[in-house]
């Protein structure tokens, strides 16, 4: 057993489960009864043992018996360890021998309401609902599972570790007029002994990890298509299941799904291995989606899309999330990481290859530009903190696992995969991945196994240059010094706080330079020196024009001299979208860390007034908003930065207008949305007036077509920002009555724009009321966090209601609690607030969300240091350019 893992004893290994659930109580306490028969291998050396230890959490085990070598013995004692989420079945006498046995356990569980294990989701149905469907005064319920990372143990006693793979037979008893789903197709349906009930048995699964098992029960209907490609001579059925009345909103996901299944079967050179693909929309869901083999579950906004009422941004989201989860059917399900320390193997790869598939389906979306402005920049942000962790990080137990489902595992992992793919070449890289999958299918594998396959295919020692990227914390900034005909490069660890100590800066990364140089921006060619492999080096034969890190494929920041940054800004129209995004993102990050100056960033973005690309504008607007956020409590600078932003945005927003044109592309729509929202929130009069006018027409019911669905978020935010209590109540009313699948999420994000402490407290009470589902609470609080006018009210609410409301409501699912705290408290730029937060949690048991609190503390203190350091120089720069009001 690895010393850094708290794992089950190795004396007993499962090979097959027969799981039967029955007597489900569709109301009251929502309990159910279960029997699980586990085929086990009692290994040599277990002869003197007399007990079986397995995972069980919030279950009651009624009885257990072990049949081994012809004798059956009942358990004499059953004990539980809540902290380690284990049960010990003591049989009283030594096993006496090893061999194959059957462990039979009868138990009781609860279909809980915390989005983990086997749980219930509330919803308001459309259409006539069978009387058997569970309901209360206001809601109906569906039932489904969420087992990753370690919550299969909440549903049934099991050996709940990823490398303890087994096959599964699932049998469910349910009302005759409802639908049951699981990983595999139905094998048989029989009448139950209970009147009005049936028993559904599903086909046996392939060998797989417990976290991938899934089932669901509810009033489901579906839309269906089939793959174009044949699998074992037949096209596969592909379905999107929803509760009644929503199935047609699954057609967009369906159309993507069958194409991606065929595409990945070709790319990975292994046919999709199951006989069906089901996608299920779940009304309450802690994550975005879950890759259960053959029964993929999704938050509704990640799989449903209505052509008439959904914002276009959700089209992009649905397409990507569908592809990401399908990637897991091979990378994660067919070949599984050995232990949770290599979670990145699942999530980093699925993130990269998910975008790879969307680029194949929608080349006009400029997916890699989107990847750079969203995924790469977010990964940089989290990995620039001292509280970051290596991509491959030691994980001891379940509560630690949940906290690494984060931007490092997903986004830094995928960014590093993209860097490696660019270096090896896409074709070579994908061949290596296919070879890795073929070699380890139906087994567990490690990072080194992937590196070995890629090394063999490419003829390069991949481990030698990738190992540090995976096993060391952080990433580098490459600082450039110019000399005639050459540049000197120095790499050091990038920290947002800008103060890496020598012991924190010992890693020498392999850095692909992506250096292009030429007489001018229009005459560049790739430099012969491909990588920086020392702490410092000099690159010769560099012409007058040069730029590092082409298309931002390398995972590092670049810190240019101020004059070079200005020259690159002048040449921006000759740079790729990714290069322009990287230029702005690096300038912002270097300013925050103190490697550069905020004034350098402001001077750079001034040149982007005529920018035409949404993805570049997105980076500019995000970084400007962050700067305004940091200086929000310094009145003169805050006003001047608002003026600066208004001056930058005005020509673009006035040019793009409000009218959507026939045949307009996805990126054009997103540009209009971004510019209108940003212009309105910094007070562009024309935008504000038009937004308020349309808002009144829409909310009064006079003209429900006054707001294009894609502009609801922008218009609602601007209206609440400007309109006080009346506008807030109008959006709250919209939240309660919207029928759009994305409507509630948009309303919550908009209501966070309130401008008074009283309305902020009213909104937070609403967020924590039963009217807002647990999965959505962070949507509301994150919007308050980005609202400098009232963000302190959020911290006050958390502090004053921690024991009575916040912790009791959210602690049943630590993923939700950690995310809420991290998104809600990390926007302050005041060390005094960091002190308050630190003191408040000093005497609390923070296990399960301690890493989120560490991120909050590190971020606040870094932003506070940045504000203090750059305050005067920013004030002087803004004053020189006439943005600062004279006293």
UniProtKB/TrEMBL annotation:
InterPro entries from the UniProt entry: Aminopeptidase_N-like_N, Aminopeptidase_N-like_N_sf, ERAP1-like_C_dom, M1_APN-typ, Peptidase_M1, Peptidase_M1_aminopeptidases, Peptidase_M1_dom, Peptidase_M4/M1_CTD_sf
Residues of the site described as Transition state stabilizer: 410
Residue span(s) of domain ERAP1-like C-terminal: 545-861
Record-level Gene Ontology MF annotations: metalloaminopeptidase activity; peptide binding; zinc ion binding
UniProt-listed GO biological process terms: peptide catabolic process; proteolysis
Residues annotated as transmembrane: none
GO cellular component: cytoplasm; membrane
Catalytic residues, chain numbering: 325
Protein family: Belongs to the peptidase M1 family.
Name of the protein described by the UniProt record: Aminopeptidase
Originating species: Delitschia confertaspora ATCC 74209
């Amino acid at each position: 057993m690895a010393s850094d893992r708290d794992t089950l004893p190795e004396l007993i290994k499962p090979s097959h489960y027969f799981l039967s659930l029955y007597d489900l109580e569709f109301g009251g306490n929502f309990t159910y009864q279960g029997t699980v028969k586990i085929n086990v291998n009692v290994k040599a050396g277990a002869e003197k043992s007399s007990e079986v230890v397995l995972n069980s959490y919030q279950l009651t085990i009624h009885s257990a018996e072990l049949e081994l070598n012809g004798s059956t013995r009942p358990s004499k004692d059953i004990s539980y360890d809540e902290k380690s989420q284990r049960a010990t079945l003591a049989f009283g006498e030594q096993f006496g021998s090893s061999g194959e046995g059957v462990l039979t356990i009868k138990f009781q569980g609860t279909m809980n309401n915390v989005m983990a294990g086997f749980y219930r989701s509330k919803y308001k149905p459309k259409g006539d609902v069978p009387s058997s469907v569970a309901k209360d005064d206001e809601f109906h319920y569906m039932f489904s599972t969420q087992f990753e990372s370690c919550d299969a143990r909440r549903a049934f006693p099991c050996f709940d570790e990823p490398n303890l793979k087994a096959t599964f037979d699932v049998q469910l008893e349910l009302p005759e007029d409802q639908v049951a789903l699981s990983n595999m197709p139905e094998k048989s349906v029989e009448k139950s002994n209970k009147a009005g009930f049936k028993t559904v048995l599903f086909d046996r699964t392939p060998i797989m990890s417990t976290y991938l098992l899934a089932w669901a029960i509810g009033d489901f209907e579906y839309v269906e298509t089939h793959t174009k490609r044949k699998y074992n001579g037949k096209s596969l059925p592909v379905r999107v299941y929803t509760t009644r009345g929503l199935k047609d909103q699954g057609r967009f996901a369906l159309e993507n799904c069958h194409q991606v299944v065929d595409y990945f079967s070709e790319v990975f050179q292994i046919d999709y291995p199951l006989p069906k693909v089901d996608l299920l929309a779940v009304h309450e869901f802690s994550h975005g989606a879950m890759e259960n083999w053959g029964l993929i579950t999704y938050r509704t906004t990640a799989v449903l899309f209505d052509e008439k009422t959904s914002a276009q941004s959700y089209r992009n989201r649905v397409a990507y999330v569908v592809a990401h989860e399908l990637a897991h059917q091979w990378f994660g399900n067919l070949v599984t990481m050995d232990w949770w320390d290599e979670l990145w193997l699942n999530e980093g790869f699925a993130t990269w290859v998910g975008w790879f598939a969307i680029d194949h389906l929608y080349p006009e979306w400029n997916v890699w530009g989107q990847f750079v402005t969203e995924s790469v920049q977010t990964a940089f942000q989290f990995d620039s903190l001292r509280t970051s962790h290596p991509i491959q990080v030691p994980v001891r137990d379940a509560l630690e696992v949940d906290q690494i489902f984060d931007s490092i595992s997903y986004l830094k992992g995928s960014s590093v995969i993209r860097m490696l793919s660019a270096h090896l070449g896409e074709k070579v890289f994908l061949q290596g991945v296919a070879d890795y999958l073929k070699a380890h299918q139906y087994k567990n594998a490690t990072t080194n196994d992937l590196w070995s396959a890629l090394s063999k295919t490419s003829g390069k020692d991949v481990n030698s240059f990738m190992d540090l990227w995976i096993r060391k914390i952080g990433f580098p900034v490459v600082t450039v010094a110019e000399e005639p005909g050459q540049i000197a490069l120095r790499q050091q660890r990038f920290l947002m706080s800008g103060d890496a100590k020598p012991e924190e800066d010992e890693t020498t990364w392999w850095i692909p330079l992506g250096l292009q140089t030429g007489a001018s921006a229009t005459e560049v060619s790739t430099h012969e020196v491909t990588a920086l492999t020392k702490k410092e080096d000099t690159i010769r034969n560099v012409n007058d024009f040069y730029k590092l890190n082409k298309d931002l494929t390398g995972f590092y920041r670049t810190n240019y001299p101020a004059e070079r940054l200005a020259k690159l800004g002048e040449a921006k129209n000759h740079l790729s979208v990714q290069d322009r995004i990287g230029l702005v993102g690096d300038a912002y990050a270097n300013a925050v860390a103190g490697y550069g100056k905020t004034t350098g960033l402001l001077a750079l973005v001034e040149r982007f007034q005529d920018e035409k690309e949404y993805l570049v504008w997105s980076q500019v607007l995000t970084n400007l908003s962050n700067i305004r956020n940091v200086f929000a409590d310094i009145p003169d600078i805050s006003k001047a930065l608002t003026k600066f932003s208004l001056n930058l945005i005005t020509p673009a927003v006035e040019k793009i207008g409000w009218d959507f044109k026939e045949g307009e592309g996805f990126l054009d729509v997103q540009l209009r949305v971004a510019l209108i929202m940003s212009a309105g929130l910094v007070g562009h009069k024309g935008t504000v007036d038009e937004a308020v006018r349309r808002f009144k027409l829409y909310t009064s019911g006079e003209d429900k077509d006054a707001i294009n669905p894609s502009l609801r978020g922008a218009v609602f935010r601007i209206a609440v920002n400007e309109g006080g209590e009346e506008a807030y109540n109008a959006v709250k009313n919209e939240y309660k009555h919207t029928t759009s699948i994305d409507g509630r999420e948009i309303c919550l994000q908009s209501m966070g724009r309130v401008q008074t402490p009283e309305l902020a407290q009213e909104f937070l009470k609403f967020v924590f009321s039963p009217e807002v589902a647990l999965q959505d609470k962070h949507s509301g609080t994150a919007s308050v966090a980005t609202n400098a006018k009232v963000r302190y009210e959020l911290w006050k609410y958390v502090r004053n209601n921690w024991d009575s409301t916040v912790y009791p409501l959210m602690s049943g699912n630590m993923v939700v609690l950690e995310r809420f705290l991290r998104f809600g408290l990390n926007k302050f730029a005041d060390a005094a607030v960091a002190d308050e937060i630190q003191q408040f949690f000093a005497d609390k048991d923070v296990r399960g969300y301690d890493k989120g609190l560490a991120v909050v503390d590190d971020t606040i203190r870094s932003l506070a240091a940045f504000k203090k350091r750059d305050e005067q120089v920013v004030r002087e720069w803004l004053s020189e350019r006439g943005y600062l009001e004279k006293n």
